[in-house]
Amino acid sequence: MDKQFDVAIVGGGPAGLSAAIWLGRYLHDVVLIDSGDPRNWETRGVNGYLGLPGIRPAELRAAGRDEAKRYGATLLDGFVVRARRESDDRFVLEYDPMPTTKAEQDRPGPGTPRRPEDNEPCEATRPVVARRVLLAIGLKDVWPRVPGLEQVYGDRAHVCPDCDGYDARGKKTVILGLGRKAVGMALNLTTWTRDIVVCTNGEPLGAEPEVEAKLAPLGITVRTERVTGITLREGTLRSLQFESGEALGCEKIFFAIGQYPADDLGAQLGCARDEDGHVEVDDVYHTSVRNVFAAGDIVPGPQLGIAAAADGAIAALAIHKSLVPEERKLKRRHAGEEVKPHRVRPQRADDARGEDADAAAPPWQEPSPSPSGATSAA
Q: Quick one: 262 and 124 in the same domain?
């Protein structure tokens, strides 16, 4: 494409699509590039989305894409491999077009053609030029090495207590994970159930003594045996199988291993990131790089569909204001007003996802990536 867009959005989940809709309503020329490999694709429904209880990810994305197109947004199916800033008002994104995507085919499994560290252009790579960039690239989850886990993911196995803890109320629940992260998730889930076991899959728990000490008074036990499989009966989760041959009955699984950015565009553009790899932003989702914004799961904060959509809307309003010419603006009443600092993720001991430094490791060095693929602009 030879034209220059007002805004280029990378990622077509709730954050990216919400931003595209709002920017279209502001009459901006918007392009959204999406690889069609959402993190939550296998989940049976998006919980807590106002007015749309249990809507499937496919349905939400399809409705959002149709609405964005009605406001004039250009939607491209592709995977962005490189991003560079040529000036404050000119950014170039290079992407590989994708003839078909996992989202279009409504199927599980990997959906993007490249890993995050693979940024070399190929014959099909094409450029997009824009005055502003919004990163809505999302995250990926590191999966435990447990055979059969992919068969129950999204229905009886989850990564987010905030999203899916309600469905675990009163049920036998297993946490697969290590360290502070696993303990934090177990403590969070006590809101809904007290029948909880932490399984470390052949490793020591690895949490500080004062952290581990919180489990026993709540009746939460720790099993360190290696998990060799999952038992299903008539499609229903029944138990975990240990290497010893023993079985542990369970009805719900949550895993807390780690997360990583779906790609490294934030690093390529030089955006400041926290120790978990989240892109740091201010209150209007502007990053540390001028005219680059970020929204959704890639920024610190709750990882909820409805929160991501709100992020995208707030970022869109800020992007619009940044594009309005000076002659159409009023100056601030207080010229010396300070700019708010970039946000970083709050440090909480009871964080459901924990605070282990291991989560900041590069995604291609993690031991076991999600079956949904290592990369996604979702």
A: yes
| 211, 183 Cβ separation under 8 angstroms | yes
Quick: pLDDT tens for 211-230.
Answer: 999 999 999 999 999 999 99
How many Cβ atoms from other residues are within 10 Å of residue 162's Cβ?
16
Structure tokens at 201: 């899959």
Is there a single domain that holds both residue 85 and residue 194?
Answer: no
Is 9 a member of any domain? Answer: yes
Q: What is the pLDDT of residue 339?
A: 53
Q: Chain-centre distance of CA 95, in angstroms?
A: 20
Least confident among 100-114, 161-175, 342-356: 342-356
Contact 33, 370 (CB under 8 A): no
Q: Which residues contact 107 (CB under 8 A, 6 or more apart)?
A: none
Total number of domains in the chain: 2
Residue 265 belongs to a domain? yes
Closest CA to 116 of 358, 363, 294, 360: 363
What's the predicted TM-score (pTM) here?
0.84
- CA 362 – CA 311 distance, rounded (Å): 25
Range of the domain at 338: 4-141+258-365
Residues 168, 293, single domain; the answer is: no
Q: How far is CA 334 from CA 290, 330, 337, in A?
A: 22, 11, 6
Question: Cβ distance 341 to 282 under 8 Å?
Answer: yes
Angle between helices 14-25 and 57-70 (to 10 degrees): 20
Q: What is the pLDDT of residue 33?
A: 97
In tens, the pLDDT along 259-314 reads 888 778 999 999 999 988 899 999 999 999 999 999 999 999 999 999 999 999 99
**CATH at 223:** 3.50.50.60
